[in-house]
Amino acid sequence: MAPNSSCCQHRMLLAVWLTLLVLHGHVLVGAAQSSSKLSDQLLKRYLSNEELVAWMDEFTHKCSHMSRKYSIGKSAGGAELWVLELSDKPGQQEAEPHFKYVGNMHGNEPSGRMLLPQFAEWVCANYKSNDDARRLVDKMHTHLLVTMNPDGFAARKRENGNNVDLNRNFPDPVELKGSAEKMKQPLPNAQPETIAMMKWTLDTPFVASANLHEGAIVANYPFDGYADHSERLTGKRHPAPDDAAFQFLAKLYAKKHSFMAKSQEFRDGITNGAQWYPVYGGMQDWNYLAGRCLAITLELSQSKWRPEGELPSLWQENREALLALPLAAGLGGISGTVVSAGDGSPLPATVMLDGIAWNTSARMPAGYFNRPAAPGSYTLRIVHPGYQPASAAVTVPEDGSGVVANFQLARAGDKNSSSIRGASSSRQGGRSSFTVTPLTKAAAERDRQQKQNMATAILGLLFCICGAMALLHVCNGQRPRQRLYNRVGHVTE
Length: 493
Ligand SMILES: [Zn+2]
Fold this sequence. Notes:
eight-stranded mixed sheet; 12 helices
């Protein structure tokens, strides 16, 4: 019995020891696996292009209920330009706004390629506990192009693989005399990254976007160039028709950033692009005039390529602002649908705000429109051929909840006039006021007259610009284009 009992005890001890060994091994492997997760590396170092793609795969696997990965084309060097979309119904068409963030357009300004992935991680981790994270996912579609210039990043240079500055490679509204149709055609020297960005912007109903750069701390808004194509640093503003909305969005980012609004150089931490230094062929003005998307440019670091040890503080500086901007642009303005009063079919009607010479349209298939707007009162006007026009006085509330106005347009000649169906704030508890003003005959005539006056004014303006350009040409001959430098001596935007 004794030898057998001892043998039994030995076997038991061996079994316990083996079990412990296996468990310990599991723990070790588990620890090794968790530390090799790329999401844990985002605030520690700049991931390579290959690692960024792997991170996106990791993310779309982990947060599959609110994300998808898709490509918009390839870089000059053949790298895929991957986008991460955040939404509860990614890839599906919904009556919701689309917003885009673009990082790393300049290869040597890599903060965006770290901030945007970290932003996605934050949204996924806080979806259940944070109202704003949930609104972002449930009520809109946010698209993150984490790097627009992977080749430039790999070579640690501003330009793309063909040595072209992508932020001077877009069709220019001044040279094309503001023709939206001409601006939709890429330039002869258009780079693959530019062509991909143009197609993506024209194919997706983006309402707003922001482009992340380095070299200063400021939120920059349109226009970037002057109407006479001047490259002189005059310090004069060249406001866009939506100047109030642009200033509102830029100020919001600056205010939500840890210290941008306290800038010594820029009042409120914002600047009109041309007022700072004129840029032609940039992405910002093109987005607004050709893409019908309100774009701003964010300069997030005084020095380019911040040391990796500073990545956590760069994230903390921008975390709140990165969340606030898409919500304000997408959900804080004026939105709604336009349908036919007869059969309820959606209409791609033109959507105008009185006093703002920039239109957008309701998008099919839902007839949904969305215009970012600063808090205040507006007259919204809806026009579609064959239908009676409609207008409504709307008030965009201060609390970011936006105002929703749904229109039913009566056919021209119908006894019943066009009407508004339902009007509310996009968020419960939001304050917004709303009154319907169907257009009377006199008002319609006034409307026609106003449009005629505006057309005459635009023609006059074009005439002046052409005259000024011809005069400049005669005076200066073939003036060589200057390189543009900002006050600290290097190109940022
Ligand atoms: Zn830049």
